[in-house]
Amino acid sequence: MNSQTYVMRFAADEATAKRVSDLLFEQLDPDEAVVSAYEGTAGWFVAVHLGHEPDRTRLTQLVRQAAGESATPEFSQVEEKDWVAASLEGLAPVPVGRFVVHGSHDRARVKPNETGIEIEAALAFGTGHHGTTQGCLAAIDRMLKVRAPRRVLDIGTGTGVLAIAVAAAAKRKVVAGDIDPKSVDATRSNARANRAGNLVLPVQADGVSHAAIRAGAPYDFVIANILLSPLQRLALPVRRLLARRAIVVLSGLMPEQENAARAAWCAEGFALRRRQVIDNWVTLTLGR
User: Fold this and answer.
1) Which of 21, 161, 204, 223 is within CB 3.0–4.6 Å of 126 for a Cys-Cys bond?
2) Buried (b) or exposed (e) across 51-73, using 16+ Cβ within 10 A?
3) Structural domains of the chain sorted by starting position, each given as residue range(s) with its CATH number in brackets
């Protein structure tokens, strides 16, 4: 982590920076490259840190694909820099409703009337900075203003940020499933760090196939922040695990994928309650 690294950096406006970072995140191997978008004193930047000499031509082409043909990233080399620590310092707290997602370096900035969720950037998805995570947190905040759910399921939990949000604010047990064992480990660790270890049950599961997920039914609140294809496949299996008047929050969708997701769930008896778009990512709240 402290060895020599190579850096590609690109300055842009906020929307372009996030568009470039999303594309780079999708195209680059996470075992070889760390992608971040952040706001500095002179505007927004995208940075890619690598442990080896980068393919400058390919990276430039990817940046131009998202930012335009005139975009020109800068390349540099960093000697003996702890780029993980540097990246963490650049992650500002993310306020969404009553929630504030933050790293340990911003723990003291959480106000007494806010629900702080401490999540460090790691291999699992979910630091609160992505539009899908923010959309789900906003949906959770709205849900809790109406009623506290009794049984909660978080599908594709990532770092566990959404499961921890419900557990911390509603004091309810949450079953948190993810197909990736690293995400399950991250969720368990983060839940303990946020004093919610006794409320969050992390399980490694493909969809809702795990026995612990079936045992927790019927659920009256389900969150699924994943991708279009599994969201479509899960409509029927999830419906079978739901209580009457259950609420389902879906995210991980781009605007052009929204209709396909809605069609799959409407076919199972769900109706749209609310639609929210953050950073060009759609979050849907559905009711039975």
Assistant:
1) 161
2) eeebeeeebbebbbebbeeebeb
3) 5-89 (3.30.70.120), 130-287 (3.40.50.150)
